[in-house]
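Dear colleague,

Thank you for sharing your sequence with our group. We've completed the structure prediction you requested, and as agreed, I am returning the results in plain text so they can be pasted directly into your records. Please verify that the sequence below matches your submission; if there's any discrepancy, let me know and we will rerun it promptly.
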Amino acid sequence: MLEKLKETVFRANMELVKQGLVIHTWGNASGRDRESGLVVIKPSGISYSAMKAGDMVVLDPEGNLVEGRYKPSTDAPTHIFLYKTWSSIGGVVHTHSAYATAWAQAGKDIPPFGTTHADHYYGEVPCTRKLRNDEISKDYELNTGRIIVERLAISDPLAMPSALVNCHGPFCWGFDAEEAVYNAIALEEIARMAFYTVLLNHTKPIDQNLIDKHFKRKHGKNAYYGQVKKK
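Please find the predicted structure tokens below.
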């Protein structure tokens, strides 16, 4: 079932390792089949070095197990909630990459200090509020998804394809699993640049007109970055 998507999600998870965004079993990637709504996700606690495409777990849109010999990632309820909320996304990634996680542990948004940031994110990368005790003790992973959506409060998640969960780490998403991984890689590099920018005692974001220019030349109906796709 969904063998092609399993292979895609497996490769997405392995790319996180290749790019240095995860170590041990600290992360997960998933993908959604747009036709059926089924979600394929990494199994929980399985070593990346031992993992195969056939080990990926298939869940229904409510998070129930459809196929797989392993338990799904413990973060599956977060992924499922994001998919249910945002129909436009087809991939979700969670890591504990060092620089993005440092911003999350500090409970700070990542300001748009330069055009590299603006190429990928339309404004500051948001950090959620802290979870309340009752949200931690019951439905923790589901509530993690809820506070991400609460913090973004936007209709187009692809214009801001990442968020930092306070005291936890980054979640990223995209049109598919491959794009979600791309956004996780970009976020980590942007978080690293921002970290050093603050160390240099600079805390002022770039002008909004420069944010507009760099984001909109790569995103949206009037984008002109890159090559025109042949019909």
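Summary note from our side: The mean pLDDT is 96.

Kind regards,
the structure core
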